[in-house]
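Quick one, probably user error.
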């Protein structure tokens, strides 16, 4: 065989390997490859990190303490129902994220069968912990990228369901910026790097921006503008307008998540001036419309239906909502109202009736039903704690310490009461 033939075969082999490697890279992380190629071939400016001026995320505090809406006993009863009693095998990231945003990373439980906030956070931030739960052959939750760590999200098994929900939930849980994040191969990343990857990755035309708004809002202020990985200028004004686009009922959880995110941006704007004056007024007007709709849409028993944006029409022509959808609307509305100024509230009597309905409904559910719909009921626990100007973990740990019966009950729970959420229905 001639040297020329050997040379041609070698070139062909190298070319084939390059094409295979390129195809695999695209399959693994198409956007990262696309960005890298664009930067090299089109001479685009590489993404520049956005300054994050704090070690701990901001906290938007509740504005009220209303024991006339939620008594200590009622709050304790609801929180007992929504403890994260997850089977450690194949824990669903979405369930863990919801548990963390409600209970926080500092939550501890006397029952060793209930994962602590720290354990839940490690499940989300350490690939080894995720593999312990899902097995070595499971597709990773954390995705190694050249610039950082991204999160696998969507409806696939073992994924975070919503874009940036992982980040927003850990942020609300009180995770620090320098908390390590261990991917399948990368061991040098932190939560701060995940924030930067989300900023680089963000596009305004994404289907869901509710959790991106929350995560960026709690890390970036007073920054109000930044440049994304596509070279486009982004701002909280643009995100707020994106949240308000479309029919109110069509957003996640009957449109209630976008309401909470918009209320959060208003509160942050009051302190850090992250919105223009015109956008502040536009968002406030949107929230006034929401207030007027839920005033008219509440049923006599206190719940709000999934079609609450129809106002009085929702009561006149009721939809056949299962209970969990009523819990979604009622719990989520109580949550954003707890951080809203009084002029955005329905009358007190309506808030009281909503709280009474959701308390009774939650307490009456069997444990397995709560776990089957955990993502929805977790909002109830968080909302009611906000109305008492407290945090679920703080209140629960003090309650158990000062009520011997509650402490004994929690510590002595049998393992078989901890129902596996892994076999239950997915929630948002």
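Nope, works fine. Designed sequence:
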């Amino acid at each position: 065989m001639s040297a020329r033939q050997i040379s041609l075969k070698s070139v062909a082999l190298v070319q084939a390997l390059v094409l295979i490697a390129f195809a695999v890279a695209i399959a693994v992380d198409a956007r990262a490859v696309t960005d890298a190629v664009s930067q090299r071939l089109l001479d685009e400016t590489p993404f520049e990190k956005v300054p994050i001026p704090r070690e701990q995320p901001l906290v938007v505090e509740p504005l009220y303490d209303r024991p006339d809406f939620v008594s200590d006993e009622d709050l304790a009863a609801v929180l007992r129902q929504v403890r994260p009693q997850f089977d450690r095998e194949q824990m669903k990231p979405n369930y863990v994220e919801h548990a963390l945003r409600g209970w926080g990373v500092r939550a501890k439980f006397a029952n060793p069968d209930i994962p602590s906030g720290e354990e839940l956070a490690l499940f989300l931030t350490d690939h080894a912990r995720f593999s312990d739960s899902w097995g070595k052959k499971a597709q990773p939750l954390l995705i190694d990228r050249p610039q950082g760590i991204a999160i696998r999200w969507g409806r696939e098994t073992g994924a975070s369901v919503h874009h940036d929900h992982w980040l927003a939930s850990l942020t609300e849980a009180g995770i620090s910026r320098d908390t390590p994040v261990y991917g399948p191969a990368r061991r040098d990343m932190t939560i701060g790097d995940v924030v930067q990857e989300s900023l680089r990755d963000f596009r305004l035309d994404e289907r869901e921006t509710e959790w991106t708004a929350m995560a960026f809002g709690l890390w970036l202020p007073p920054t109000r503008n930044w440049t994304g990985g596509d070279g486009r200028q982004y701002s909280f004004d643009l995100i707020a307008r994106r949240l308000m686009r479309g029919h109110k009922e069509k957003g996640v959880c009957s449109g209630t998540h976008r309401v909470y995110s918009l209320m959060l941006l208003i509160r942050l704007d009051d302190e850090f001036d992250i919105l223009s004056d015109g956008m502040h007024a536009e968002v406030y007007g949107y929230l006034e419309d929401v207030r007027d709709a839920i005033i008219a849409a509440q049923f006599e028993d206190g719940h709000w239906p999934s079609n609450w944006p129809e106002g009085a029409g929702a009561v006149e022509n009721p939809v056949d909502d299962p209970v969990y959808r009523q819990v979604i609307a009622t719990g989520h509305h109580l949550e954003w109202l707890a951080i809203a100024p009084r002029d955005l509230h329905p009358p007190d009597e309506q808030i009281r009736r909503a709280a009474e309905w959701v308390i009774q409904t939650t307490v009456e559910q069997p444990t397995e039903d709560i776990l089957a719909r955990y993502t929805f009921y977790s909002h109830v626990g968080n909302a009611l704690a906000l109305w008492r100007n407290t945090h679920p973990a703080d209140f629960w740990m003090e309650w158990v310490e000062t009520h011997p019966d509650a402490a004994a009950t929690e510590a002595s729970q049998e393992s078989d009461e901890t129902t596996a959420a892994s076999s239950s229905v997915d929630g948002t």
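Residues 1-6, 21-31, 38-44, 414-426 have pLDDT under 50 and may be disordered.
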